Batch of 3 targets.
Target 1
Amino acid sequence: MALVKPFIFQRAAKLHRSPLGLLLIFDEVYADVTQAIAVKILEGEFENRKELFNLILEFDDYYREAKDAYLSGQAEQVPAVWDKVFRAIGAGRPPLRWVWRKSVLEVLVLPIIVHLVHDLPLAISRRLQAAPDQWPSQLRDYDKINDLLDQGIRDVQRQILAAYSPTLLALSALTGQDDESLLAHLFRLLRGTTWYDAVRLFSNSPQAAWLLEPPAVGEEAGSGFYPVELDHVSDRFLSVLNTIEKRTDSYLNFILNPSKLMLPLRLLFWSLRLCDTLYLAVTWLFVPTPEPIDSAGGRLEPSRGPARAAVQPVTRLRQSSEEIRLREPVL
């Protein structure tokens, strides 16, 4: 048992000490995927590194700001869809007291839905508004990330599920490659819809109207004031934003409250909750005496690792912004 303890239960035991609660599981997945993309950017694997770098930072801010606001008790600053997820998975609460309500699978799926369906189109739209002439290279790099996500799904199964939900890992092994192929396809569909929503937001923004409005006779493009109905454009923008929020909420409700016709899905969630609860109860027996926790920002002491490790990839990108800028060719 002395050998089993450090290698099998070490990572799961950290979950019981984390101020993030079950949210730490998603945080680690998000960190692993972001780390892979960050490394590829710094290695020059993408066509438009500068814009992709900016997109990742923009995308990351939506999640970090929502998480920090929720954990610090500033509920009024948390988007409704994120608040719904944080409450559902018991973010910031003891994992063992919450896992019987939401399985590790649900803890992973719910934040992913919000971050992809709600946050990503907003981040892409802002980057399109900031650099509209660079959208072709942005789209090509966006597609290239799909391949990294495919690999990320396999990494999640090998590392995250092995640490937090051996039952789900066993079920995945029984299905062979089918579950990986299905998840990869679903991710590509979601990301395709996300780009479409981002273009809808961009095309209905005041910035896009300014750019697309033809100049008056005798004026050069980009000069003077173009008579654009900004109030009308703003209404359309808010309408698109509202449809994104409603779609995100409907996806969440599908997972949180499956209909009676989805009885197999309900049974799967109930079974996983039971198994995950038993597993985390066993890992709790191996949790050492907690060390002091730095509550500032809801993160552990630097010596601990999980919550801090989750921000390292983006922190590395922020620190490398000047390096990336200097490497860009001057036209």
Target 2
Amino acid sequence: MKNKDFVSVLQRQAKEQSRLHEERLLPKNVDWLTSMIGNYPWQFILVLSVIGALVWQVFF
């Protein structure tokens, strides 16, 4: 009985994964940005933190 439940859960998850794989969260024209974030996450976080710090210093 547990195997049948496990198989049904796996099938539901596989169906959900295939649906998520087909849908795009972001438009195709920002693929360069998502690729950069994926390849250089720490550098991207560093740039965002520097920009955030500069904005904080200027406006607050």
Target 3
Amino acid sequence: MRPIALALSLTLLFGCRDGVRRPEPVGTPSTSTYALAYPHELERVSRAYEAGRLDTLQHCGDAVELLDTVKDPVDAELWESILVAAEANGASRFYAARVRENAIFGQVLREGDNEITKRTAGAAQFTAEQKGCPIGPEISGATAGTLRRVADKRIEDRLHDASDATAMMRGRQDALGKGNLAPIAKQADLIAYASFMMALELPTLAYDRDRLADESPKVKHTLDRLVVREREHQGRAGVTDADKKTSDERIRELEAAKALVVTQESQLEGAAAKVEAELRDTRENCRDILDAIRTAIAKRRPK
């Protein structure tokens, strides 16, 4: 390839800026699967944003409650350093990736009314019966419960693997006090997650909600177009009653989706204008709480 052609190809591929830019997914409001899933996705993101703000404040508040569970003697300077590291970790790309991966895994594990755990328990019961050892529902229930507990523990361990705060606590039992390890570790977990929510997740959810809200007119147009297509299909010669019935069900599904989108539009009107203030208030409230925690710990340093 000629040098000029190669340079042009690279420019088209990577853009004019230095390095590789992060690719952005292409919106698909014109596809039927996306249009039908859209109102449920918008509802999920909206709920996640609202719940996330409350959850962030709750995590900060719970971290304060743990102050009194840490007993003297304790190396207050090390304790404070651990919590500072936890806050920094929460805003890191590595920690954020782990949190989001864990969330997907947890969602898959529990979706479909816990289908995975139910099938695992059913497989255990079937295997036992094949071996001539029938088991009762309490055994299969215990199998499902064990799977959930093991999964939850692995999720927790993966976060700790991405945490400098956890690393700082290893081999520091004498300095922190054996009985203090659990509450300090819990406090660090709460602060790291609150930091992640404030710095990364809440702004991302707010952006996703606004992006989805902007797609609403296109989604409604797609749903209307799909209804027209279904009615045209019903008017063709040779369409069976069974096919017409299926088409009618499809039309009802499409119209219900559009009605939900219209409702969501009115509910989200003006929401974008409030986001900046909401995020600022959440950050400031949590910041005040975290500063209060550090002040309380500082007072426990040796005079």
